[in-house]
């Protein structure tokens, strides 16, 4: 159908197909040598995306594999991830429209497809058909060892001795450097120019699409689902079709040996949004899940804190303007607006509110708690007052249990899968033998593990800690009152606590050292550290990350006072 | 930006190992097995830079778990060991030896012998030379089991011999085992080391076949060659041999002298003191006193009536002869501060009297002499 040449004999364009798959002219029955290109749509199931046409494509290699390009691999990965998200309840629009449009745009911008001359075409990939002398004699082509040492490492693949030894035998054997056509080429690409695709970046794509659709999944939740196995990431390549053989440098690209970190995925997402020249994202308004008011409510519930605190978080949000549409909505490429981490921001607001009401200096909060305890003992009418001490004990207990479980899960994490990975055909048998031994040992010791079977993947849930009002042991604090820490002044409810301590007087320059502040546990009160730890667990990020955000919120909140102080200081110096 | 907290393969396996370690220390074999199951995939990564790689970890940890776990059988254990042998050629002989030890502990002598023979015939390029020491050990233990077989045949013969029977076949077998054992055992004891069991067995063989010279030489080497680590047992074996040979008191005493230096509380010190006391030489008698006092410095000898009687006898002799009283003074000087509380307290005196009258008597004698007048012993 795509064949538009004129017939050599009769100059007509009227082609049909013989049984043998060859084109023949219907007018003069001239049979050509051209066979119909088998357009293989196996890989790309979305019919709206065309295959990357590179002319005649060799279908079968010796081992039943075929040619495939790295970006096809990533496309498959994204597809799987989108399907998983759909299964979690994300609207199908994400997979069918948003994500694949982003992906197409990316391919276009990075010149891998949908453009005149795809980048891969002109460069000969280092493949098996190269003669050994070519590889050695060309001084400009980077050596394989150089490719290996490119520092964007995903763990320890570099140190695999079996690979190193196969590299040294490069010139003798016809070992294949990569199963894909452009594997080696891919790693050679300059990272800055073209925003080379990586596995963590697939999550950036997902998050970007989720943000565009304003789906109720935060980045920390997304990453947690990945670690819990609900979204394919580790070993996704085992779902590649049989024909797509993975070996050599492909492993460096698709095999991950570490879980992606929030910062990494977040920053990449913004880079990507700018790279794709995306317009302003859809507005994040106060009815969106990602709005601080909404997220604060969720986190307050999860942290087992009184609902009344929500009024306070809303007040803080309003005062410092972080609930504004323009603040929250993403404008790609705009370097002056701060990139918003919705989940971390909400957690930081709660921390600041706790500091406002309870001070958290390891003294005041316990004093307040004692007063509340007294009152609760003597007066049971009108519901209990919130006691910090009780809350601390209840939450700490649960947190410790969950943290312990999490630590054990991390230690029991299985990184390998059934699909064998080998750098070259040479060490295939060794790899398979090892795999067999591992499986044997797993069986043997698995039986001795007793009745402790590896639990089924827990159902994905948005709430990790849950507290029920129905519990009669009083372990749920949602309905508790803040009256014990508040007072009325001029008709307004204010905190009894008159003081506040800033996490840091001066913010660091983020561009220089990457952080707004540097958190060291010993320098701060235990209560503060506990609260940070709680949210650190819920969001699965480092406490220092939340601390940074707390500093930012505080500085916004006390802006005027700080400004005055600084001004005063400079005057003195003069 | 540094992502030091990033959870990666290596960190996750490190954490896994520490959980295994905790479980092992607390003898929670099921839990250790659970985590080991997760750890084994480390085999698929290369850790050639590390000192102890995953294959060695798995071997050692797996051995512990399988040995102690209630549901693990010897068959499973052996199967596991066979797998471990294929894992690291550099460790092949070590694993074989460990396997053999476990089999012996389980009473499977024949299997152990088979494994040792198999290991002996192993060759693997330059590894054979590198693992030379382990190979000698393998041969030595095989030799030891040969000795064990020899010993069994010998006993059979001795039993039958009483009836006047002399089974030639058994005798031939016995001699065969002797030859095999002797060759291997001789080899290993040439290398400096602690080879008590090999030495004992080898000497036993030599004595049986009448080669006393060789036996004496072996024992002397073992005890006196400075290249060998200091080993009290070496001197004990030499002494026992000399005694069996009926050697003079002089050579017996010289054999025990170093033992006194290394292990003053050794049980043979009683014999030593007895010999020294009877000696005609002043120096020897003086040494005897030193020896017996040294013995009673140790808590293990506090209630030993024989030791006290030796001391009592010698001290009494000295006091009665009124010569060399300064010997007692010298020995008592460093002990007068703590021996009274250690040996001669009122509580001990009462208890000794109730439990062991002869001990009490001897002690009282000594105490009377050492502590002088005005002491309430009873």
From TrEMBL, chain A:
GO terms for biological process: nucleolar large rRNA transcription by RNA polymerase I. It comes from the Eukaryota. It is found in: Nucleus, Nucleolus. Residues 258-448 form the Rrn7/TAF1B C-terminal cyclin domain. GO terms for cellular component: RNA polymerase I core factor complex; RNA polymerase transcription factor SL1 complex. Belongs to the RRN7/TAF1B family. This is TATA box-binding protein-associated factor RNA polymerase I subunit B. It comes from Erpornis zantholeuca.
TrEMBL record, chain B:
GO terms for biological process: transcription by RNA polymerase I. GO terms for cellular component: RNA polymerase I transcription regulator complex. InterPro entries: SL1/TIF-IB_Component (IPR052669), TAF1A (IPR039495). PANTHER family: TATA BOX-BINDING PROTEIN ASSOCIATED FACTOR RNA POLYMERASE I SUBUNIT A, TATA BOX-BINDING PROTEIN-ASSOCIATED FACTOR RNA POLYMERASE I SUBUNIT A. This is TAF1A polymerase. It comes from Erpornis zantholeuca. The lineage of its organism: Eukaryota, Metazoa, Chordata, Craniata, Vertebrata.
